[in-house]
Amino acid sequence: MALPLKYYNSSHGSSISQLPFMRLMFWTFLILSIIVLQLAFGADVRILFFAVATALCGFLILNHGGIYDAVSLAGFVFLFNTVFFAILLKTFLGQAIDSNLYAPFISFLIIFIVALEVLFAIKLVHIIPVGKPLYKPHNDLSFLKYLAIVCYVLGVLLWILSQLYHVDPRSQFSSQDKGFGGFATIYPIFYMGIVAGTAFVLLSSNQKKSVNKWLFMMILTGVIMGLFESRKVIVGLTFGYYFFTSFIYRHRITSRQIFVGILLVLFIFFIFAPIVHVYRTDLWFLPFSQRIDYMKSNADKMIQSNYLFDYFRRVFNQEYSLNSYQYFGQNLILIDRFATIQHSDLIIDSFMSRNEMGAELFIQGFDLILPSFINPNKRSISLGDQITWELGLRKYGVVGFPTVPVIASSFAAKKWLGVLVVPFFIFLLLFLFLKKVGADIRRNVFSIYFIVPILVGAHEWSHSQYIVRLFRLFPVQIILLLLIVFFYHKVRAISIRKSTLL
User: What is the pLDDT of residue 320?
Assistant: First the structure.
């Protein structure tokens, strides 16, 4: 049963007193327990202070609008995936939070500063008028069915075209071949099919079911797409959209979904991730048609135990690690992606003893907004690659899209000035965008569609990746969705007019 609305959202924000007493006691007990345990593990008191202060900022951020407010949720999850999860896991493993970092004091201080910036940005966005939201909740079953079918079919077709006309940036760097990325900009509309399909199944079954055979086919399509592209994030988004939509509509996750989620984690960890990492180097440089043949001819070999065991041996021996990220004492593969403090820490420590890369780094991302037929000379190399090449962390010319979060990329550009300015304006723009799309995500499939990729990946994005999404990817997808909605209402109005005449 859902809690009363006042616990989740308020147009004027909310106060700590509005939270249920037991929930407040739980969080207080958890924080105090972590403090006591970390002191016992030998954590630096100063660093522990910044960690607790950052946690308080996160609590205030989430409490400002609640879990059904896209702005508050995005801000909280960013901090959770940056440092909160890391603190919880380090405590569980019996490790001090400042162990296995290169510059722990500076890193935790900077994250605390960024947490304050996120909090101030939310407060400012709350008072800035943006007009009516672009999208309102649409829970008419006929509309959801239409939206699911159109977005699924259109998304799959656009994905196929994106693969046919795509040249991987890793080969673009060493050749004159250029791909067309326009289809890749809009094929994520495919995920709206999963969102609308999940909402349709839930509403049509009075929340008794969250999946049917057609929705299962959509989810399976997402897994296949991730396999052919050798990208774990596609599978993560596919299931992320399904589970998050189900949670928003039901206000809970069922025991069956928890069981399926555990099986999913095991599948990704032991089957999907090894296949992707072992064969991705070959698949990256193959055209789409040859990729299909390659997958068919290697299907049996991909699931042989000796190949999978060899993969795990190399992972735990750091042979697949771009850098020696060992914040938890060893390479934890996928788990490391939800503790980006270690990625920022390495960049921050490296630039503490060398010159910054300069303010020109801030404009990177803006040159990627225009399509290639207008700006044919735009960069194909990510900002993360440039920064790690500059520091000598990776071999020059080896393109791999390493994780360089906005905190790290801002520090690389202008050090302290960059950290004080760039994240604030990035999150201000992000929160304004979410507010305009529709901050209230309750039963709003459009708000769900835009918030999920932010929840899944924003903690790993550099400032240039934020710019590309805010000024290219999201606007194009907004226009496409508006056209899809307009076409539905236009056709429906015509049919109603005809039935009236008859």
Answer: 46
